[in-house]
Write a structure and sequence with these properties.
It contains 23 helices and seven strands. It is mainly α.
Length: 547
Amino acid sequence: MRLLLLSAALTLALAMPLAQAQESLPDIGSSAGELLTPARQAEYGGMMLRELRNYGYLLDDPLVTEWLQTMGTRLGSNSAQPRQSYTFFMMKDRQINAFATLGGYIGVNAGLVLTAEREDEVAAVLSHEIAHVTQQHVLRGVERAQRDQIPILLGMLAAVVAAQQAGGNSAGNATMASIASGMGLMQQRQIDYTRSNESEADRLGIRTLARSGYDVDAMAGFFERMSASMRGNDGGYTVPDFLRTHPVNTTRISEAKLRAEQMKKDTVVLTTEVPGGVRQERVNPSDPGLSDPISRRQNLLLPPGMQVAVGSLSRGASGQFDWARERLRVLSAPTPSELTREYESLSRSQKGGLTPAQRYGQALAQLTTGTGGAVGAARALAELHDADPANLWVSLALGEAESRSGHPAQANERFEQLLRQHPGSRPVALTFAQILNEQGGQVAGQRAQAMLRPLLSQSGNDPVFQQRFARASELAGDGHRASEAYAEAAYLNGRPEQALMQLQALKRQPELDYVSRARVDARIETITPTVLEMRRQGVNDPELERR
């Protein structure tokens, strides 16, 4: 059932995706919205996310995830449907791509960020994907694809089961080939239909981009860079073709340029007073999105004092792009040696050598090479920190380097200060917890558990949190809480059978208190039907089979 659900989710996603297009509006009276309820859409999106983790495609890094989610949420709040919830996630793949699927789930490849030169270009692609969600392109694609889904899904499932029975695993070549071929068939049958979505997503996306304070020229600029890079890109870490989308041609680039020029002509500069100075932004008074009741701004077409409700405009680039890109360069590198050569090449090709952000990335790479590397990383990061003490990316990395180079007390003091400066920060808490878990011991575990506990209510779908909370609880001597968290981490990483086994074992513990037992029972009830259907289909967890 696991692979069937994955196949279904991905088929639904790719029935829509991202080819080329003419401008159009949603079909009035379309039955697409009746195919799946919003709750069912979110369920399919969540299934796909868990399975992508199971296949090892996701890059779950607290700093990168927060940067991406913050940017995406800001764009979503300025889109045609500002109340739609979105989940943005990063893929390890160095191919240039992004995609949207059901439930507001939007994935971005590391290669897209590495190719971009500024945050505005990444925001342009995210705005395009958000438009696919707001215009229900996924659901309309599903409506068209219904006749093809079942035979393709059955064929893919049979191939996956055969590969597993032959000793393959979830990331094996046979499995990947079967999914890629099925998705290729579905994508080919839908390509004429998806062309009618791309231009609409470009058109609405550039409006979202402008309303969020980003440079509207970034969309055409990135399309041009994407086109050039895809002609000469030999890859890196790759995934099957079903996650490669967005063909770009000269027509699409020209249309993006024309829209940007028209949008700049149609806007005026609005100056408002803010604490410490003034703020300027471009506003299109005729933008229909300005009727959305989120915040208030004076409409330039109305007399002074009269107000209209307008979309919430953020202030564009966050200033974190360079640091996020270098962190992604390190985390997505195929091998340490290739990463070393990459930074050597950057240093030779740039007149001034490596930038501060690139030196940060180089230090991160050193951190992975053991104690000796951590000592060198700590020196490099200390220099960067002295130049920019408020930089959270550098401060967190410096704390990691200090702990791993034999100075845990100094590192812990730094992290405690960062916690005070950034209360409730997920990256700070998770990074500190990881360091405490590495240091080991009951005291470190208790500190990590106490620090993470306030984040429990908002971290139910966060596998990084669950894994680190589980280890902290284990060190602290709280075995029951550790077992629950380990089970949740297994489930979120696409291993529901392992999660079920851990929960069942925990339930048999006689000292389990009433509240914890009720919580465990509820999770068992939720997970059991999925595991039973997986077994009925003959799809088993390869890790369990090897035990």
